[in-house]
Amino acid sequence: QLLCAALLTSLAACALKPSPPSVQAQAASQSLRITSSFTQQEYPVHIYLPPNYAASLQSFPVLYVTDGQWYFAMVKQMLEARGLQVILVGIEEGGKNRRQIDYVLPGALAYRQFLTQELIPQVEG
User: Fold this and answer.
1) For the chain, percent helix, then strand, then coil, each to nearest 5?
2) Which residues pair with 63 in a beta bridge?
3) What does pTM read for this prediction?
4) What 3 state SS string does 3-23 have?
5) pLDDT reading at 91 higher than 90
6) In whole angstroms, what is the distance from residue 101 CA to residue 86 CA?
């Protein structure tokens, strides 16, 4: 948790500005939609793979970013600018104002299950 907090703090300190939502999907290496059986919502997900991912036999750390519609492109630019070999996964808001359900109790319990039992196993696989 400390490492994650330090990374997020250093990323937040960067002067790069977030791109508008229309740019987010274009910045991704891959985009997909995952429907959660826990929240009954479809979530757009964008995945960035580091440049040497396909040719490498090593495993890469994965950074998950919620509110991906706002922060995916910005974090991707930061990773590339620093030459960090990290897989980036940006999770967009499921439906309109879904953050008001997924980020607070009791809805956060189902959203956590979506992340830990559906999304993360699929990405890590």
Assistant:
1) 45, 20, 40
2) 88
3) 0.74
4) HHHHHHHHHHCCCCCCCCHHH
5) yes
6) 29
